[in-house]
Design a protein that fits this description.
- The chain is α+β, with helices and mostly antiparallel strands.
- The protein folds into 2 domains: 30 residues; 143 residues.
- The protein is built from 3 helices and 8 strands; from the N terminus they run ααβββββββαβ.
- The protein has an 8-stranded antiparallel barrel with strand order 1-2-3-4-5-6-7-8.
C-alpha cells in the first residue's frame, strides 16, 4: 500500500511540475496591453497598383477602451496623409486584430489633392506584440490590408488608384 501511495504521490508531483513549466507560464500570462504611440514602418508586400517594396513611416496611436489590462483598442493614424484610419482592434493572446473603414483623398501626378473624398477604404489590421515592459507592448509586427474603391465624387474627378494593397507593419513604442 505504501509503495502505491508513493507512486501516486510521485505522479501527482510530476503532473504539478509539468503543468508549472515554461509552457504553462506562457499560457497563463495575461495578454499584453496595446497603448500609446508607435513609430511604425509600412512596407508594401503586394499590390494591384503602386510599387512592391515601397516603405511609409507612420505614427500609430493606440487608445484602449479600458483603464487597465488588455482590451479592445482603437488604432488611429493618417495613412500616407490621404485619410484618417480608425481600426477597432480586439485582443486574442498577443495578437490584436480588427477592421475599419474611412474615406481617403486622391491626388494628381504632381501630388495635389483632386478630391478629398475620392476613395472608400476598407482596412484589416492584425498586429502581434513581440515585446513588453510592465505588461505594455513595446514592439509590434503584423499586416495591414487596404481595399480601395472609388466614391461617386472620386469617379467624377477621375481618381484612378482603386484596388488592394497589403503591407507588412513593424513598430516600436516611442
Amino acid at each position: 500500500m505504501k509503495k502505491s501511495l508513493l507512486g501516486l504521490a510521485a505522479g501527482v508531483v510530476g503532473v504539478v511540475l509539468a503543468s508549472s513549466g515554461p509552457a504553462a507560464a506562457a499560457a497563463a500570462a495575461p495578454s499584453p496591453r496595446l497603448v500609446g504611440t508607435f513609430a511604425s514602418t509600412f512596407t508594401v508586400t503586394s499590390t494591384t497598383y503602386g510599387t512592391v517594396g515601397a516603405r511609409y513611416s507612420e505614427q500609430l496611436h493606440f487608445s484602449p477602451k479600458c483603464a487597465t489590462g488588455p482590451c479592445t483598442t482603437r488604432a488611429a493614424y493618417t495613412p500616407n496623409e490621404v485619410g484618417l484610419s480608425h481600426v477597432r482592434l480586439t485582443p486574442a493572446g498577443s495578437t490584436y486584430a480588427g477592421r475599419g473603414t474611412y474615406t481617403a483623398a486622391c491626388f494628381d501626378q504632381q501630388g495635389n489633392v483632386i478630391d478629398f473624398h475620392g476613395y472608400n477604404v476598407a482596412e484589416t489590421l492584425s498586429l502581434t506584440v513581440l515585446n513588453t515592459t510592465q505588461g505594455k507592448a513595446t514592439d509590434i509586427r503584423g499586416t495591414d490590408k487596404t481595399v480601395t474603391t472609388l466614391t461617386d465624387s472620386g469617379r467624377q474627378a477621375n481618381c484612378d488608384r482603386q484596388g488592394t494593397v497589403v503591407y507588412s507593419v513593424a513598430g516600436t513604442r516611442v
